[in-house]
Design brief:
Rossmann fold, 47% helix, 11% strand, globular, disordered N terminus, binds magnesium ion
Length: 234
Amino acid sequence: MRPLYHVACASRYYNIGMGYTTLFCDLDDTLYPASTGLWQAIKERMNVYMHERLGIPWEEIPHLREAYFTQYGTTLRGLKAHHGVDEQDFLAFVHDLPLERYLKPDPQLRQVLQSLPLRKWVLTNSDVNHARRVLRFLELEECFEGIIDILQLAPYCKPQPEAFTIAMRLAGEDHPERCVLIDDLPRTVEAARRFGWFAILYGVEGPHPAASATLNDWGKLPMLLNQHNGRDAC
Ligand SMILES: [Mg+2]
């Protein structure tokens, strides 16, 4: 079992708040690992939607998804622009999955999040209904001040800087340098770093050119933030 940093180093954790005040956490493939297969299942539901609802041939879907993701930030935004897709219908369809097959409570992550004296927000290009369900299955609901989702970020989404501006406004945070982001997508992390946030790439070991830092074990987050603040690691 991993050490419970919040117990061993509780007095030092207060120091984290001296520099950072707001922590934004991505949802999919960040608050739960990619190995659960949930995000992959969501992407497969997107493919089914594009084929069954929009009549797009299977062989064209991977290329279109990649093109929309690159140009618009999400598949949904591309489908809205080119196919007039109703976002509520799309989001309900792609997230219609039995989460109990993929997720289970994560008490260690809950302890880590609760040990950090930061205001914590979920910041996701998904929608609030999916985010609430995921947090419920992970038993992390009470760890966050709230959820900032794709509908609140509209017409923008991560990694657009306007999305970071909206997130700060909704979180009541005026200072980019006091914000931390944890996300599994390098392009989002790089954009956040350029925006002035301390941007952590999740799921990667060692330095990464896009990121302020990397993290592949949530248990090490308090130590990482302490180190960045120039304090001794726990
Ligand atoms: Mg993600």
